[in-house]
Amino acid sequence: MDQPVHPGLTDEAIADRLREAGLRVTKSRVAVYRVLHESDGHLSVDEIVELVAARGERYPRMTVYNIIARFLGAGLVMQADAGPGRALYEIAERWHHHFVCRVCGSVYDVPCVVGRKPCLEPDASDIGEVDEAQIIFRGVCTACTSSPHHEN
Amino acid sequence: MDQPVHPGLTDEAIADRLREAGLRVTKSRVAVYRVLHESDGHLSVDEIVELVAARGERYPRMTVYNIIARFLGAGLVMQADAGPGRALYEIAERWHHHFVCRVCGSVYDVPCVVGRKPCLEPDASDIGEVDEAQIIFRGVCTACTSSPHHEN
DNA sequence: CGTCTATATTTGATATTGTCAACACAACGA
DNA sequence: TCGTTGTGTTGACAATATCAAATATAGACG
């Protein structure tokens, strides 16, 4: 598992991306960006804390919440809704949607045919200005269909 | 405000609906169904507890969670995701989606052109069997656009 | 290179949301 | 009416998110 899903970025490359987004460069921000980039998305705040800690840097949850809020504001990460009680975050690259398994809770990416926000326009445009449309598909994933008693 | 959004149902009418769904009829279930029916949806569990209490019946949150879980299983109510940290429930009538205002957090209904689940099929059907597709539209509602400093 | 200031991080407390287990109670059918 | 089985209740608990105040640091400027 030395080589995660995405190729690693040097600290400098991450720092450049932060600066491009108009953000100050700090060690904690670089660390959070790295784990978000290397894992293939769908990280909760606590998972970020743990992954960063596994690399030898420990930061309080509050710090990660602050960082995520900044990243969200700068458009660096997107917030994926996977149901109540948990917010998942991932690097904002291609716009896509999510499939959530009712049995094991796993989250899968579902490509968006449009690929950019807001990908869908609601019927009622008099409600307000829509800038994003996120779809949650629910059902049972193939893994859980084949082994009914499997849990996560 | 004596007459809420939907016309009131008698206890008997609600009891019949519960029995049709194969559920036992209890006072708490009737009370929960009533507030869900009379308010026009988008109720959190705590809001249900408060609305029921305002009518003179106090039930613990746990009871409402149990009831909601039963209602969900029986298909009486649908769970609407409006972002992390809060699950909203409403009587399952017409399938529809939701618009969430980024500023004030208000939730608006958005009609679904199809009107029934699952209304959308994902590109990747090899992930699993999709039984529902729920769309969250995000943006700024007209109320918040006109008065920027308004907070809910 | 060193100082300054706005910005970030840390800390601890607290709110919100949802879950677990064990016991008491009530609805429905016999 | 009685008994079985599903419900409601209770209290503790876990997970998630937020607030305020004190401290530390990044980046800019001299």
Structure description:
2 copies of one chain form a homodimer. With 152 residues, chain A is α+β, with helices and mostly antiparallel strands. Chain A folds into 2 domains: 1-93, Orthogonal Bundle (Arc Repressor Mutant, subunit A); 94-152, Dna Ligase, domain 1, CATH 3.30.1490. Chain A has 5 helices and 5 strands, in the order H-H-H-H-E-E-E-E-E-H. The first copy, chain A, has helices spanning 11-20, 27-38, 45-54, 61-74, 142-146, and strands at residues 77-81, 87-91, 96-101, 107-111, 128-141. In chain A, the strands form 2 sheets. Chain A has a 3-stranded mixed sheet with strand order 4-3-5. The model of chain A has no long low-confidence stretch (mean pLDDT 84). The A-B interface holds A 79, 81, 83-87, 97, 99, 101, 108, 110-111, 113, 118, 120, 122-124, 126-145 and B 79, 81, 83-87, 97, 99, 101, 108, 110-111, 113, 118, 120, 122-124, 126-145. Chain A binds a DNA duplex (30 and 30 nucleotides) through residues 24-26, 28-29, 44-46, 59-63, 65-67, 70, 84-87.
